[in-house]
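Re: the request from the purification team.
They wanted to know what the chain is likely to look like in 3D before they choose a buffer screen. I agreed to run a prediction and write the result into the notebook, where they can find it.
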Amino acid sequence: MPDNIKASTQEHLDIYAIKDHLVFLKDGSAALVLKTTAINFNLLSEEEQDATIYAYAGLLNSLSFPIQILVRSQRKNISDYLGLIDTRIQSVSSQKIKEQLLAYRQFVKSLVKENRVLEKKFYVIIPFSEIELGLSKSSFNPFAKAPQKPPFDLVYIEEKASTVLYPRRDHLIRQFARIGLKASQLTTSELVTFFYTIYNQSSTTISSIPTNIPANS
């Protein structure tokens, strides 16, 4: 393959760096990611469902900035749980209990295999745009080659981004608490794992469903 058409994977990624619990993109923008808990809406009473809907509507109406909601579904990994059962089987002396545990192990294994038990995780991405950094739209050329590094030093971008992102983060955490959800910011190591699974889906069973929510006009 000629050298001029060779390109590393990194050249095709928008991410430039992940540091200090923030994601920095090559165009100068940045983002932080919140992970939230979930509630089983169907198990709530009618009054609780109405209260949850109103609280969620209040969250959306309170937004003065865009967010992205990401729901990731992954097949449940039960290998650790099966290993725990195996340890228990080896430790019990009663043959009757051992047979019950073997039957239970087989039941769990077949249940997951036949019904594709999924584990869902919920995230909210809060962006800091390159326009907020101070770059004007006139500086963007749609025909230009995609940038391979931000236009400013990361220290400068982080200083600007943090003053914008952290108040937005705190606002969302408070709003989610009103719904009964706990939100927390992903750390640097968690972000690395998060994006690794996104860009290596061929080796996982993860699928993602992004939903963009624009800011109120």
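For the purification team: The helical segments are 9-12, 46-61, 79-91, 95-115, 130-133, 154-179, 188-199.
Please add any questions underneath this entry.
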